[in-house]
Sequence to fold (387 residues):
Amino acid sequence: MKIHEFQAKEILQKFGVPVPSGKVATSPSDARSAAEELGGKVVVKAQIHAGGRGKGGGVKLAGDAGEAEQHASDILGMQLVTHQTGPEGQKVKQVLIEEATDIDRELYLGIVLDRATSKLVVMASQAGGMDIEQVAAETPEKILKETIDPAVGLQPFQARRLAFGMGLEGDAFKEGGRLIMALAKAFEATDSSLFEINPLVVTGDNHLIALDAKINFDDNALYLHKDLQELRDLDEEAALEVEASKYELNYIKLDGEVGCMVNGAGLAMATMDIIQYAGSSPANFLDVGGGTNVERVRNAFRILISDEDVKAVFINIFGGIVRCDRVAQGVVEALGDLEVNVPIIIRLQGTNAPEGATILKESGLEFTVAMELKEAAGAVVEAVKAA
Ligand code: GDP
Ligand code: MN
Fold:
């Protein structure tokens, strides 16, 4: 689960990480009064669940409260496009007004799970402020790493080694060691999957401050954290994905034209591949799961066809635990309730496949039924072309 920058900063502050004073505003006039409270010279920052806001025009410096109001009125309501939002961008509904920081240097600090070692790793770099992915790809030696031993946690000497490696001296060095330890503690306490402070700033008077903050929580641990669950902002998530999560469907919206309903993540991946191979592209990934029933199929189908990009629907079910006749029943019932104007291609294989085929045939509804995957994919692509 992702959260906003201002929420991440509130959490970090509780653990002793210094952040700039700031206030959230949802209107230009609120932004003006927040800027007045903070002394006039502020930064106006778009709050969306994506990075790269600076380059997209979502972070602006203001010299006084009037300018802050003007920036807020430009940014609020804009469709902010960054390299993480996709071409349609994300609508900005709130801005963070923060006292401006006197920046000497911009550093990078992050914590992620290293899947190769199954341990957390703290990463630090002097090359902060810009795309860290680019630094990692082109000059990996500029990224320092310390692995956290889960038995003992991050050790102070490791934190000091990173602080030294970032070129910190004097007060900033001392603060760096403490800040990195605090960050590791916050990460563990919140069961996070990603922390990113980019940039961590050395100020003109040699102190450290977290100028940006990104936190992702581990969804599998969220049930342990009622308080963190409340930070979820559904406006930032794709509407159909939110709807699908209500029914425990694994649904991910994609940008193609074939709506896919498949059981099992592996088969869903293979289905997406074969659609692509046959010359079209999937509009979504949808795994209806193993123990599916009529109700789930109905909901899945409804979500699938409410996507306007869908020009044809491909139902690809292998009946192992799930029975094909139940899936067929779900599809027929769903079609009874819903108005469907796109062609449907169904491939049922496995347990009770013949019974499933009979249900489809006797329903009087229009389907293309295919037995082989290749044949089915061909029919799907034909249908898309005809649409
Ligand atoms: P991101 O682009 O979404 O990662 O947003 P950031 O919070 O990292 O802001 C982008 C850039 O804006 C930073 O790298 C800074 O260079 C600049 N910036 C943000 N806050 C301040 C500030 O208080 N003073 C100055 N001078 N620049 C700032
Ligand atoms: Mn940033």
In short: Residues 1-20+102-237 form a domain with the D-amino Acid Aminotransferase; Chain A, domain 1 fold (CATH 3.30.470.20). Residues 51, 198, 212 surround manganese (II) ion (ligand 2) (CB under 6 Å).
